[in-house]
Amino acid sequence: MPVVPPAPTPVWAIAPAEALDRCRTFLRAQLADSGRRGLVVGLSGGIDSAVAAALAVEALGAGNVTGVMMPYATSSAASLTDAQAVADGLGLAVDKVDITPMADAFMTSVPATERVRRGNIMARCRMIVLYDRSARNDALVLGTGNRTEGLLGYTTMYGDNACALNPLGQLYKTEVRLLAAHCGLPSAVQTKAPSADLWDGQADEDELGVSYAEADSLLHHLVDERLGERQLAALGFAPALVSRIAARVRAMAFKRRLPPVAEMPGRVDPDAAPGEAGLDAAAMDALARAASDGAAS
Questions:
Q1: How far apart, in whole angstroms, are the C-alpha atoms of residue 208 and residue 185?
Q2: What is the pTM of this model?
Q3: Residue 103 is part of which domain span?
C-alpha cells in the first residue's frame, strides 16, 4: 500500500498539544450541552477517523465512545485491519455493519462506471448507520472531516460531512497528521496514502490533482492569510494551481453552509448569535422555562 513520506512541519501549523487541548475542551463542552450520553464515530481505517476517535477518548474516556466499522464488499481488507488496530489501541467498543446489502439495493440502477455516484451512495449509507447507532446509544455522531476537505469540497453532503460536532473541521490534513503522531496512533494509519476506499485503487491526491501538503500550504496562505495572486506566486505557487484551487473553494461553498431559507416577515431566528436578528437572552430564557414547565405538567 502506498505510504506518505514524512514532511517538514510548516511554521503555520497549530502545535498538536494545543490542538489536542482545544479539541478536548470543545468535545467535553459540546457533549455536556447536548445532554447526550456519548459519541459515535465511524472508523474507516484512515487517519482522520482515527484522530477524531483518539480525541474523543482523550476527552471523554473510551466508555463514552463507540466506534463503528462499515465496510462495503469492495473495501480494502487493510482498512478493516487498521480500523480494528485503532479501536484496540484506544480501548474502544466497536460495532461492525456491512453496508453492502443496503448500498446494493439502491445501486442496482447505478452503472459501475458511475464511481462518484456509487461512492456518494456508500457514504450516505454509512451515515444512516451512524445516526441509527447514535439514536440507540443516546449519543452524538462525531465528525471526522478536516479543513482541507471542507475547503475543497472533497466530501459528500449528508454523507461523510454529516455530524453533530466536528473537532477536526478547522485543522488541515497536515495538522491532523501531526495530531496522529502526537496521539501515538498506529504507524500504518499515520503513513498510508489517504483514500476514501470507495473503489479499488482510489486515492485522494490523485483525484484532487495536488498533494495534501501543497494544498494545505496554499489554502492557509490563500484563505487564512488572504494573500493575493502576486504574493502567492512569490511564495512559489504556480498561478494555474492558485486559480484552480481558488475556484474550487468558491464553487464548493455550498457544502460548507446550511441550506438557505427564504426569509419571511416576523419570523425570528431563535438560534441567532448575540447582536444578530434573533431572540435575546431574556426571550430564550423564557422559552426554556416554558418548555420546562410544560414537561413537568
A1: 26
A2: 0.88
A3: 16-191
